[in-house]
Amino acid sequence: MKDPSRMGFTLLLFLWVATCLILSSFTVTAQEICTDEITKPEINTAIWEVNNNLSSDILISMQTEECWQCDLVIKYRLGAGSRCRVRVDTRWPMNYALTDADVIDIHCRNSFHFQEDGIFNTEVVRNENGSQILCSEPSLTNNPANSYDPIFIALGTLVGIYLLISAFYHFKNSTIFRRIFSRFTQESLIEADLGSPDSINPADDTESFNNHLLVKERLKSLDAFRGISIVIMIFVNYGGGQYWFFKHSPWNGLTVADIVFPWFIFIMGTSMAYSFRSMLRRGMKKRSVLKKILLRTIVLFSLGIMLNCFSIKDIDVTTMRIPGVLQRFAVTYFIVGLTHMFSAKAADPHQFVWWTPIQEVVIYWPDWVVSITLLVIYISVTFGVKLSQCGRGYIGPAGLSNHSHLNETLCVGGVASYIDRAVFRESHMYKRGTFRHVYQSQGYHDPEGILGCLTSCVLCSLGLEAGKIFLMYRPSIQRVKRFVIWAVLLGSAALLLTYASKENGWMPINKNLWSVSFIFATGSLAYLMLIICYLTIDVWKIWSGSPFYWAGMNAIVLYLGHELLAQKFPVHWQSSHNNHWNHFLMDLWGAIFWILVAGFLHYKKLYFSI
Asked: What residues form DSSP beta bridges with 110?
């Protein structure tokens, strides 16, 4: 017969290990006493009402699914036989657990996506014989409005207004309108007897058509694409209606806000193909081209530093942020421009050789050597350098991620942040990372840091490739075919690197790190958007590109202007209504305001560039 004392010790040891395993899946924080004081949800939240019908207290633990590999965090303690209301995040599905406060016995653990402005109820009870505790799934007790209504209604209204304006101008330019209008003029009597000048001299029309063919090609689609990007950027920078998909991703993932900056980098590369060929055809020497590259780099970088300091009173140069959006443009333009300066050509010398179908790649092979080299350096440094605190190849946000096992101050962003800290020091880095709210990480990471400049140069080179295609192939079918090929290749590469998932891939899509999959995904989307704009504006001519064309012609003015007027009237004002309707309409008005400014500048034929 076994020794009872040994059996008792074994049982206690088993219970202790089981308790430790259960507790290891939770992060213990200061617990709040859960009350019934919360009466209504706020923006991007819902109310979760929990009724504890047990004779013991329960702990309410929660964690959003957006927090990858994060343990549940104990938030509230609910007394026996009481009820409380909890405000929960509705942007992503919520993992939760209701746990016995005394026995550490999990009552229920589940995941649920709460609806915004909803009030949900969960009952915690025992079964009929009292041997098991049951928790009902959160059930909706009210009838909340659809939080996406502002988007649908505003989009439908804007499309309707645009269609009405387009129909009016189409009718105004039609023969029927001219005939109707001519009835109310004295000239109609003369035209009735002598004929209209527009219809009796077809030779003039032929001459006009021939002259039109001699006009230098300007791609309105490229300006419209640039305008689309700057308008979206203004809208999301002003708040995007406080919708999560108009905000930057907390870490891995891709939202609308994440794609506009890469699109600008891509478009800058496409424009470079035209500007460099134009300079060479004007006979500019490489020394003059280099001076122009240096001047534009200095101007862009200086403007970026000034924008970083604009809203700060009593500037302290010891804590001033050095990296930034325009600074990233400057560095990218300098590296890609310097490379392309040595390979750019005033004409296409090889148009009748066997490799003509891929001449834009073969002729400019030095550009590709540099791009591949930059990719290799980025991958080698990111995944090859070992940090003492974080290990080799760590690219996470630290904090609660990876079950809180890493130093949250030093491991944010891995080696990318390590390089920025070594060069700039933390005092000169970005201090409001998108990851902080979700991952509760206190470390610093600059999304426009040094290492990401390498992959932004590769993305710019992909845009430069689009410009080469425009220059080297005149038939639209040849251009579109190559754009489609590049879109498919880049999109497929992004899917392979991410395993077609958000978190599980070798190189997840990450805007904070400008990961390889990120530039491939955004590059693919850029080619697709370029195809749409090119076909509808320049080929089929079913769209003039307005009003985005106006914005694209003065993109730098709109960017600087919207930054200077951020949080200021007339694009922003204080409101007591904290809901999507108020935020969306105000942020949409901010974007429309700058479109109107661009339209006025276009009307006055005032265009500014750097």
From this structure: 96
Task: Say if residue 164 is in the same domain as residue 289.
Answer: no
| 558: Cα within 13 Å, side-chain hemisphere | 34
Tokens of 239: 């708040």
For residue 112, being part of any structural domain is answered with yes
Q: What is the mean pLDDT of residues 523-538?
A: 97
Where are any strands of DSSP class E within 103-212?
Answer: 106-112, 119-126, 133-135, 139-140
Burial of residue 259, with CB atoms counted within 10 A of its CB: 0-12 exposed, 13-18 middle, 19 or more buried:
buried
Same domain, 353 and 486: yes
433 and 444 in contact (C-beta within 8 Å)? yes
Do 350 and 472 have their domain in common? Answer: yes
- Give the N- to C-terminal CA distance of the chain in Å, as an integer: 91
C-alpha to C-alpha distances, 530 to 151, 230, 277, 461, 527, nearest whole angstrom: 24, 15, 21, 15, 5
Mean pLDDT, residues 271-290 = 93
Same domain, 55 and 195: no
Predicted structure pTM score: 0.87
- Could you give the CA distance from residue 589 to residue 586 in angstroms, rounded to a whole number? 5
558 CA to centre of own chain: 18
Could you read off the pLDDT of 378-403 as tens digits, one per residue?
999 999 999 888 889 999 998 888 87
Burial 394-424 (b: 16+ CB within 10 A, else e): bbbbbbbbbebebebebbbbbbbbbbbbeeb
Residues 182 and 117 in one domain: no
C-alpha torsion sign, points 411, 412, 414, 416: negative
- Is there a single domain that holds both residue 539 and residue 491? yes
Task: Tell how strand 72-78 and strand 26-27 pair up.
Answer: parallel
**What's the structural domain count of the chain?**
3
Instruction: Find tokens 């390498």 and name the residue.
Output: 454
Which amino acid, 385? V
Q: What is the pLDDT of residues 570-599, one digit of tens each?
A: 999 888 888 999 999 999 999 999 999 999
Domain that holds residue 166: 159-200
For the stretch 202-224, pLDDT in tens is 444 444 444 443 335 568 999 99
Please tell me the distance from the alpha carbon of residue 574 to that of residue 585, in angstroms, as a whole number. 13
Tokens of 422: 């070594």
Tokens (6 digits) for 139: 């059930």
Write the CB contacts of 212 (distance below 8 Å, at least 6 apart in sequence). none
C-alpha angle 606-469-214 in degrees, rounded to nearest 5: 55
Cα–Cα distance, 143 to 339 (Å, whole number): 60
Question: Beta-strand (E) ranges in 447-498?
Answer: none
How far apart CA 598 and CA 593 sit, in angstroms, is 9
Cα angle for residues 304, 306, 307 (degrees, 5° grid): 65
Q: To 5 degrees, how large is the angle CA 182–CA 187–CA 192?
A: 80
Decide if 133 contacts 126 (C-beta within 8 A): yes
